[in-house]
Write a structure and sequence with these properties.
The chain has about 650 residues and is of the alpha/beta class. It folds into 3 domains: about 1-145, no CATH class; about 150-270, Rossmann fold (3-Layer(aba) Sandwich); about 285-460 and about 475-500 and about 525-555 and about 595-645, NAD(P)-binding Rossmann-like Domain (Rossmann fold, 3-Layer(aba) Sandwich). Helices cover about 50% and strands about 15% of the residues. It contains 21 helices and 22 strands. The protein has a 9-stranded mixed sheet with strand order 10-9-8-11-12-13-18-22-21, with helices on both faces. Strands 2-1-5-6-7 form a 5-stranded mixed sheet, with helices on both faces. The two termini are about 70 Å apart.
Length: about 650
Amino acid sequence: MKKLNQGHAKGWNVRLDSFGLIVSDFLMIHLAYFLALWVRFDCTFSLIPRGFLGAYATLITGMAIVSIILFRLLRMYQSLWRYASYIELIRTIVGSSVSSLLHSALITVLITKMPVSYHMLGGFFQVTLLLIPRFSFRAIRMVSSVRHKAEAGVGRVMIIGAGQAGRMILRDIMGTMAVKDRVVCFIDDNPDKWGRFIDGVPIVGGRYDILASVEKYQITKIYVVIPSAGANDKKEIINICNEAKCELKQLPGMYQLMLGQISVSAMKDVSVEDLLGREPIRADLNEVFSFINGKSVLITGGGGSIGSELCRQVAAHNPKQLIIFDIYENNAYEIQLELRHKFPDLDLAVLIGSVRDSRKMHEVFSKYHPQIVYHAAAHKHVPLMEDSPCEAIKNNAIGTYKTAYAAMVHGCERFVLISTDKAVNPTNIMGASKRLCEMIIQSFDCMIKAGRAGELPQLYTHAESTGNGCFGNYDGALTHAKTEYVAVRFGNVLGSNGSVIPLFKHQIAEGGPVTVTHPDIIRYFMTIPEAVSLVMLAGTYAHGGEIFVLDMGSPVKIDTLARNLIKLSGFTPDEDIKIVYTGLRPGEKLYEEKLMAEEGLKKTDNDLIHIGCPVHFDVNTFLGQLENLMQQAYRNDEHIGETVEKMVSTYRPHR
C-alpha cells in the first residue's frame, strides 16, 4: 500500500510539473514577442507603433494556445526535465521553430506585415525563454547533487579514458543522485587532449601520470573506461592503478558502448582475468550452430563448472533436446532453473545418476537417444584423488568406458571427452586416469574402424546378465557401430570449481596468508566460456580418434596471480597480506605440458585448435587389462597405482 501511495505521489508530481510548464510556456510566448517589439524600437515602449502593438495583442493569446497544443504533440510535457538531455533540447528547438514560423505566417497573412526583426527576435526570445525553465530543473538538481556529495564526504574519482565512454560515465555520475561520487580528473594517453576539459573536469595526463595525479587530487576511486584498448595496454594500466591502492572498477567491454549501456552500474570490479595480458579468445561458432542445430545433446557432469557452461552454450544453439546428467542434484537443479528461465522453449531433461552405473547409462541412451555426447563428468581434484586413487579410476576411467559403450550400442553419432593437460606425462593418479580416458576413446575408435566393435568387452559389476551380455544382445548395433570418439585437452580454467582463484579470494578475505605451493609454479589458464567454445568447435572437426589440443596462450606464474589478486583487493603483498610457500603437493608438477614428448601437432582450420598425433599403444592388451583394473578399483586395492603404471607408459607417480 505504501508503494502504491508513493506511485500516486510520483504521478501527481509529474502532472504538476507538466501543468507548471504549460503555464510557463503560455506566459513566455507572450513575453517573447513583446520583448521582440520592445527591443526593435530601442527598448522604449512609447516608440512602438500602435498598429504593431495591436497586431501583437490580437494574435498572441491564440498563438500561445496553438503552440502549447503543438508542444504537447511533440511530447514536450511528458519528459522528466530533471534528467533533460540533448533529445529534449532538440524537441524544444524544433517545436519553438515551428511555432515561430506559424506565428510569422499568420500575423502577416491575417493582420499586417511586421518588421523582419520582430520575427527574428521573437523566435530567438521564444526558444530561449522556453529552455530556461526546462533546463533549470537539471541545473538546480546538479547543484544540489554536488552540494549533497560534498557534504557526504564522497569518493573522488579518476576516469581513465577521455573518449565517448568516459564522457558518458562522467555525465552519469553528475546526473545521478544515487551515485555519491565526484569526478575530479581524466587520464588519457592522447597528448592532444591534455590540458583540456570535459564538462569542467580536466584531462591531466597519460598513464604514467596516474600515480602522481592520485596523490595530487586525493583520488579514492579509479574507473577504467577504455573499451577499445588492447589486452596488453589494459594490463599495464591496471597494474599501474593497482599501486595506487584505490577502489578500481572497469567497463567490461566494447559491447556496452555499442549498446549504449554506459553507466556506473555497468562497471565491474577488475578481475584476475584482466591481468592475463592476452586478448580474449573469440571462436566463430557458426560451425557449432550447424552441427548442434536440431540434434539431441547429452552432457554428463552438466552441473559442474565446465559442464554447466557447455549446457548454456548448447542451449543457445537450438538443439532438438538437451539432456543434463549429473550425480550432484544441487548443481543440476541450479542449471535447470537458469536454462528454463533463459530458454523457455528448450526441450530440457535433467537426470540424476552416476556414469559408473551401467544400467543407468543404457537406460538414458535407450530412452533419449542422444546424437552428441559431451562427457565432462570426472573427479578433477589432484590431491584428493591421490588420497582416493580407486575413486579416480572408478569414476574417470571406468565411468568413461561405460558411457562410451552405451553411446556406441545406442547409435550416438559423436562422443567428445573433456580431457586435461594433466593427462600429459602424468605424475598424479588424476592425470593418469584422464590419460586412461583418452586411451579408452582411442580404443573405441580403433575397434569401430576395424569392424571389431563386437569384441569390445562390457564392463559391469552386476551379478546377473541377459543374453550375451549384461544388457541384452547388441550384435546388430555393434555390426553397424558408427560413433566417432574424440578428446579435447586443455589446461586450468579460471573460476572453475577447485581453481586457485576462489581459494586466494577466501584467504585474502580472512586476512591471509595466501598459500602458494612454489614461487616458480606455472599453469596455462583460460576462462570457462573460452574453453567451452573451443571444446564445442573442436567437436565439429572430429573424424574419430583425435586428441584435440587447445591453444592456451602463454603460461602464467601462480605467484604472480596471487600478488595481483592481493593488489586488486586493495592490499600490499607481503605487507598487508603475507604469501606463504607450502611446497608442491603429492602428484603436483611445477608446470603442465600440452603434449606428450612422443606426440606432434597437426593443424586444423582454426589456429587455436591443434591435433596431437596419438601415442601408439597395443589396443588388445589395453582392453584386456581394463576389467582387471575395474575389479581392483572396486576392491579398493591400495596397489592400484602399480597397475595404472603398467597401462599408462608415461605415468611417473610422485613418490
